[in-house]
């Protein structure tokens, strides 16, 4: 077996490259940066070969995966699947059914087993194990909906081949541009194929990249029986973008361990997320005719605005990063007699969130004393927990993902999610579910982009995941 700890410690930064040329000509034909990537690939190959472990993915398989994942991604992003947080149904929009039905049919065409589409818009399918393989079952999840933050209808994907590093422009919005200032990661993909939308919509790599990568890997397993695997459960979900991706999931169909493919930059592996709380204030003032209101009126919406202004500015999303938590006011509404305010509170540590909640509660009591007759009702709810402590009780689920990335030639980047995922909720249900990169960047924007090689790399990681689970 390769020395994964040594590779994990010493592997160079991830450099996206197309399938490597002939080893005899590679050093001369590659640039300096790509030479580093090539040498890392070669070292990994030699390590495996000396251990008697042949490289699993051939050039033919790699090209098949590249074509499959690209073609599927370009098709899927053109299906309109924006979710709607104002609709309580699951799925929240009828249009999500269009892609869900396509995926059900394609799972059946691939010969997957137990394929079904539930009344709530969840696609379930099973890849039966290779003959003679007895390995733990694991699951792969991705969501079909796209964010309502940007238009998602009539997405027109385009491929920019052999991108030369110049400013990327958009045919449907000449004023919109994409440069390395907008996304510094672009600089690492010069000479590659970049996929963007046309300028009027988001692209939908979040998370149709994950959907395409899972489907491409399933196609590869079916076409190439030498890719050994145990049983793999596939689940495609609706409404993740509005925080309801798992509310109607059939837990009986979930294996013990799962992975979501819903991350960004290649190599990102996320097993920690925000602990999340929500605070709702209902403010009741005193209404009086404004001409006779002196020392009598308590203007509810004005008082609520003053309360919001008392929240620390340095503790807001626009002033925090990395492991810093925040209080984010997402809604204020009302009139002079009744008003309301909603805030979400985030921190990686539950104790940090409790301190922020207590601050808001004390502020409400302070305002009641300042304005006698004012009533403020405070409702606090715990939305989801940090998956960290649960996932780390079963470290093998993350260890296997790290090994799969290393075998795929990707530098592992352990990250904490400044948000929540379906994986966080599934982890709380007893299914440890770390998040693996899907490759897209600048999500929820019209500048959203993904490199074709990143799509392929994520799909290859799935192939190696299966390999390492067979070794359990």
Major sheet = 8 strands, mixed
Tally of alpha and pi helices: 12
- The CATH superfamily of the largest domain is Zn peptidases
* Fold-level CATH name of the largest domain: Aminopeptidase
Determine the strand fraction and express it as a percent band. 15-25%
Q: What class would the helix/strand composition place it in? A: alpha+beta
Name of the top-level CATH class of the largest domain: Alpha Beta
Overall pLDDT confidence: 90
Strand neighbour order, sheet with most strands: 1-2-8-3-9-16-10-15
- Tell me, briefly, the overall form: globular
Q: Helix and strand string, N-terminal first?
A: HHHHHEEEEEEEHEEEEHEEHEHHEHEEH
Work out the radius of gyration.
25 Å
Helical amount among residues, as a percent range? 25-40%
Based on the structure given, which CATH architecture of the largest domain is correct?
3-Layer(aba) Sandwich
Total strands: 17
Terminal residue distance: 13 Å
Q: Please mark out the parts with pLDDT under 50 across 5 or more consecutive residues, or reply none.
A: 7-38, 44-55
Whole-number total of structural domains: 3
């Amino acid at each position: 077996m390769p020395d994964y700890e040594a590779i994990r410690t010493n592997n160079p930064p991830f450099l996206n490259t197309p399938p490597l040329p002939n080893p005899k000509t590679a050093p001369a034909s590659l640039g300096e940066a790509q030479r580093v990537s090539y040498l890392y690939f070669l070292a990994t190959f030699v390590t495996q070969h000396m251990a008697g472990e042949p490289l699993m993915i051939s050039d033919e398989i790699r090209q098949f995966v590249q074509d499959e994942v690209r073609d599927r991604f370009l098709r899927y992003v053109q299906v309109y699947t924006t979710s709607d947080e104002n609709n309580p149904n699951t799925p929240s929009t009828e249009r999500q059914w269009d892609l869900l039905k396509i995926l059900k049919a394609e799972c059946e065409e691939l010969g997957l087993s137990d394929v079904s589409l539930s009344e709530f818009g969840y696609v379930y399918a099973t890849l039966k194990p290779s003959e003679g393989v007895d390995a733990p079952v694991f699951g792969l999840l991705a969501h079909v909906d796209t964010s309502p933050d940007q238009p998602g209808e009539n997405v027109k994907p385009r491929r920019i081949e052999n991108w030369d590093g110049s400013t990327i422009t958009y045919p449907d919005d000449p004023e919109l541009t994409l440069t390395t200032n907008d996304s510094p990661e672009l600089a690492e993909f010069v000479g590659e194929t970049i996929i963007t939308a046309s300028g009027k919509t988001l692209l939908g790599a979040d998370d149709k990249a994950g959907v395409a990568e899972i489907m491409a890997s399933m196609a590869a397993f079916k076409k190439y029986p030498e890719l050994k695997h145990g049983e793999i459960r596939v689940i495609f979900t609706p409404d993740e973008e509005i925080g309801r991706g798992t509310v109607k999931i059939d837990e009986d169909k979930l294996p013990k361990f799962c992975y979501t493919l819903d991350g960004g930059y290649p190599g990102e592996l996320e097993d920690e997320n925000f602990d999340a709380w929500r605070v709702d204030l209902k403010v009741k003032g005193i209404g009086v005719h404004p001409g006779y209101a002196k020392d009598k009126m308590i203007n509810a919406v004005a008082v609520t605005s003053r309360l919001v202004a008392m929240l620390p500015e340095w503790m807001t999303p626009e002033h925090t990063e990395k492991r810093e938590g925040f209080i984010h006011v997402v809604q204020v509404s009302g009139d002079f007699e009744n008003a309301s305010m909603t805030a979400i509170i985030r921190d990686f540590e539950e104790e940090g969130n409790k301190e922020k909640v207590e601050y808001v509660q004390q502020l409400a009591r302070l305002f009641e004393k300042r304005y006698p007759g004012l009533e403020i009702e405070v409702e606090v709810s715990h939305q989801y927990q940090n998956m960290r402590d649960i996932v780390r009780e079963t470290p093998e689920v993350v260890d296997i993902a790290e090994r799969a990335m290393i075998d795929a030639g990707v530098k592992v980047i352990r990250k904490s999610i400044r948000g929540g995922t379906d994986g966080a909720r599934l982890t709380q249900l007893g299914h440890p579910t770390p998040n693996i990169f899907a490759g897209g960047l600048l999500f929820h924007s019209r500048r959203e982009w993904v490199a074709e090689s990143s799509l392929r790399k994520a799909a290859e990681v799935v192939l190696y995941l299966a390999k390492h689970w067979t070794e359990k």
